[in-house]
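Provenance

Sequences were taken from public entries as deposited. Structures were produced by running a predictor on each sequence independently, with no templates supplied. The record for HTH-like domain-containing protein from Rhodoglobus aureus is shown for reference.
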Amino acid sequence: MSKYEFLDSQKAESNNRNPVVNMCRWLEVSTSGFYHWRTRPQSATSVRRETLLARIRHYFEESDGTYGYRRIHADLTAEQTQCSPELVR
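Predicted structure for HTH-like domain-containing protein:
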């Protein structure tokens, strides 16, 4: 998790009373950098991993939680989704 992700999760907490300026100072990041990060479009890698995660969950739930990463990787390979076993893991 990046510092910006952590800061964003803390900002969303209902019991957090710290302003973003203070949290940025504590984490030694710029406030403008944080707000720029929030408006940035999602990266292609991030989109691909989210799509892959949905397929992995599908195969895991389809097997009633018994498939490990090797079997799921084999199923993904059979449907011609390119990924490494380590990425599935």
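The chain has a mean pLDDT of 92.
Residues 4 and 35 are 9 Å apart (CA to CA).
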